[in-house]
Design brief:
elongated; homodimer; DNA-binding; two-stranded antiparallel ribbon; 113 residues; Arc Repressor Mutant, subunit A; 9% strand; 4 helices
Chain lengths: 113, 113
Amino acid sequence: MNAKEKYLGEFEQFLLLSILSLGEEAYGTTIRQLLADKIARDVTIGALYTTLERLEKKGFVESKMGEATRERGGRAKKYFKVSASGEQALKRSKQALNTMWQDVTLRGEHCYE
Amino acid sequence: MNAKEKYLGEFEQFLLLSILSLGEEAYGTTIRQLLADKIARDVTIGALYTTLERLEKKGFVESKMGEATRERGGRAKKYFKVSASGEQALKRSKQALNTMWQDVTLRGEHCYE
DNA sequence: AGATTTATTCTACTTTGTAGTTTAAATTAT
DNA sequence: ATAATTTAAACTACAAAGTAGAATAAATCT
């Protein structure tokens, strides 16, 4: 089976969405921060990079090292962006989940009709 | 960390949704069939039961053996249903994903405004 | 040069996802 | 009554994804 046809894990989805959300400012620290802010998910930085690397190996994200900026200390940032096939994979995962939710209503939830 | 506070894997979500969707008729074979029909995901029966068992251990589903029916051969069915905490976990996962999608628009997709 | 800051890489382990084979319990045909 | 058939679950083993924590690197500042 082609890698492109596999589903993404949930954490992988979160990372892809974070990167898309952050645009030009997507790198380790900001991604981690966004996850903490938006969905209260605190992952260690190690967990993050491991998954990012796997996503890159599968071709779902691309990365490039940033220039050393003159305004601050610290190592260069590694910027990430979602590839076209990453977006496709994301879309597939979303659709599958939507389809599954379609005829399910949880107790205490409202029906949409 | 409490088990109830952890996120579900994506396949776990699919199983919970299948069970909810099937209502009184949720057991191994029908769940497998539903996954194949709805989202073209073909899992082996072994994969299915393994995950079902783990979900049960975590308290997200409950099971009971069905009566032997007089109308057909074959072993008794094991019926599954989603527990209250299973529903909660599902709701949390859905919300997290919704939040993450909120300010993301994929190429070629429509904005909702 | 040494301290500080910012950020990535490495290593190891746990949990989830997945397949394939085996076993079990019922009915049906001989 | 027993062997064949049907339906379905249990078991075993491995691959992939999720997670943590320490180590390392590359800048700037004093």
